[in-house]
Amino acid sequence: MNNQKSEFQIRPFPDFSWSLSRHALLSECPRAYYYHYYASHNGWLKDTPEQTRKVYVLKNITNIYLLLGSLIHERAKDVVNSIVNKRPPPSLENLAKITRDELRNAVRESRDKDAFYRSPKYRCMLHEYYYGEGITEEKGERIIERMESCLKNLLECELIKELPNVDTSCIKAVDKLDSINLNGIKVYCAPDLVLLTPQVCKIIDWKTGKDSEENEEDEAWQVKVYAKCAKEKFKLNETLEIKADLVYLENGTMDERVITAKDIKDVEGFINDSIESMRGYVEDKEFNKAKVKENFPLADKEDVCYSCNFIEICKV
Ligand code: SF4
Fold this sequence. Notes:
By secondary structure, the protein is an alpha+beta fold. It has three domains: 29-59 and 280-314, no CATH class; 64-162, no CATH class; 166-273, Alpha-Beta Complex (Lambda Exonuclease, Chain A). The chain has helices spanning 20-28, 30-39, 50-59, 64-84, 92-110, 113-118, 127-130, 137-156, 158-162, 216-233, 261-279, 302-305, 311-314, and strands spanning 17-18, 171-174, 178-182, 185-189, 193-196, 200-207, 241-248, 253-259, 282-284, 289-290. The strands form three sheets. It has a five-stranded mixed beta sheet, with helices on both faces. Strands 1-4-3 form a three-stranded mixed beta sheet. Helix 4 (64-84) runs antiparallel to helix 5, helix 5 packs antiparallel against helix 8 (137-156) and helix 10 packs across helix 11. The longest helix is centred in the first third of the chain and has 21 residues, at 64-84. The structure holds iron/sulfur cluster (SF4). Residues 29, 31-32, 298-299, 304-305, 308, 310-311, 314-315 line the site of iron/sulfur cluster. Iron/sulfur cluster binds at residues 29, 31-32, 298-299, 304-305, 308, 310-311, 314-315.
């Protein structure tokens, strides 16, 4: 059998891989996980069944907070890349203008559901418009305020100020989706910035949400996953210190953590357990063929449904 897969080959089932976001969706709602990772597969094909197309379209909905987070990450990448290329970073005014224009464009596109249905991969649809009345003026002002605070604190943070003095060969990853192989499974991670010197491996994670107790556990696993990936990717020496800086851009604070050898061992166990649990939802492990929909329970907390992309097909 030829195991080589062409990029354009149509596959009846999706590839299996692991990521923290996949784990989070399964923990939140197995039914939403089913829609996102299985039922939407091949929904991009021209002659796909209407039902699959619908799931795929819904999968591509985002919301204003997720969009803001990804735009701020793009700006952080622009700032870091300017510094790496020995250019002055863009001004706050410039960064804010680009982001404001992109937010306005997202709102404009979200008013046209038909166009989104035709090109869900290339147009934006905000949950607030698809399922609701849109974004009120008051909420819009809060979003713009948050955006401006994040960009201001990004340019003023010590890490960015010190970056021109760092040898560019130490800057190893700038917001790039990467993967490692763990027991034959592709494990994805995308650290925002990794600085590697002979003394330390420093992982930087820009946060655009609030520093809250609610997110503590997820954030703790997230930096350990990044550390595990960095360890494998850069073949880090056992004794090299690994640190993670979580930079909360909205209020300009930073949380520095040291990642120990035990943390790395723990995260391997965490990923393996999570993979095992995901594998419990497939009927054919070799082809990653999912069990039928009814095997994926609905969320046990109703408030999760409020922000779900799949309400339209689930709550009927
Ligand atoms: S609407 Fe609720 S139960 Fe249905 S998929 Fe979404 S989160 Fe799960």
